[in-house]
């Protein structure tokens, strides 16, 4: 017994303070507007609550000390709840054990830190030098090169561009792992006809880790694993003017940023939108790069968790004018993602499943860059593990997401791949009386010649 106690003390000493021991993740169902209002107020006033999911159902990560008072508060207000995770520290231990690496080479079935991913990107661009090209959009706040890989079929012809980024939220580790998996599939899977068909139609720009500074921070130690934002240093605008870090890079885009919908002005919160649109270096870099990118035809912003295909608009519950076509391709994704493992995704705008939010990347791509096929993905799972998905789910996530991305891009129609402004110009051009006259004249000439 004494040996056991000594061993436990030693384990605790070696592994350090157990930051999340006894913490729970609780799912709360809002059945009325009154419930929703109460829950929103609770989030605003209780600084210790970490929101994992928001919408009709909320998922809260609660510190152990707060559990009993929260449950009492829910019962008093007639709000029902279920406990998804009974002890968060156990879940983190499970993830850590699942991520043990045996090989010195890059392991696509494990969660890798930024230095390992960076090295693999450099390695891939050297190994597949005729079809994988490293691109760099600029430096992050902490001075990292914000890089990705352009994958082509190597025929030297420019094609419409599909952009895919992962890891905009630091703690969503399955996202960079899935983008890396897809990138590797595009580069190595010669036997898969869908890969060659997709590469015959498109050039792919893949950025596995968008928010590099935040992602690096989540690998610092156990206590930082659940960090969501960037790492820019700020100060509170009101007393006590505390120093705070990071803004939410998916509330910081130059698209309806000023409305501040489901975004905060308080830098201590997880949903801080930053002092101005594009204040976060990683966002400003990609915005500038995308504005200059020719022929951007589809944009994918990859998150976790909830199993959703999110469509525009994000900032309002109104639907995009191209919604029927956007939904059709979203449904193709959802159908394909379910084929291997029966993983069920829902398709629609964020206001339907989560909440509307301003300053999001999919709205920037759709609104400013006129990209019709602009989507956000929420990958596995539906809350059982949430952000702490064990590494043995990377491969199934990679397989099903690759299937679905390939099916979706191959289902896109050429007439929606030119920007809305180009489409508008084409319609205006065809409606111009002078152009119509010339077209009628040419068609008559054609008929005349055929009849002669
Ligand atoms: Zn996210």
Automatic annotation (TrEMBL):
It holds the Pfam family Propep_M14. PROSITE patterns: CARBOXYPEPT_ZN_1 (PS00132), PEPTIDASE_M14 (PS52035). Residues 110-412 form the Peptidase M14 domain. Its main location: secreted. InterPro entries: CARBOXYPEPT_ZN_1, M14A-like_propep, M14A_act_pep, Peptidase_M14. Residues 1-16 form the signal peptide. SMART domains: Zn_pept (SM00631). Its cofactor is Zn(2+). Belongs to the peptidase M14 family. PANTHER family: PROTEASE FAMILY M14 CARBOXYPEPTIDASE A,B, SLL0236 PROTEIN. This is Peptidase M14 domain-containing protein. The lineage of its organism: Eukaryota, Metazoa, Cnidaria, Hydrozoa, Hydroidolina.
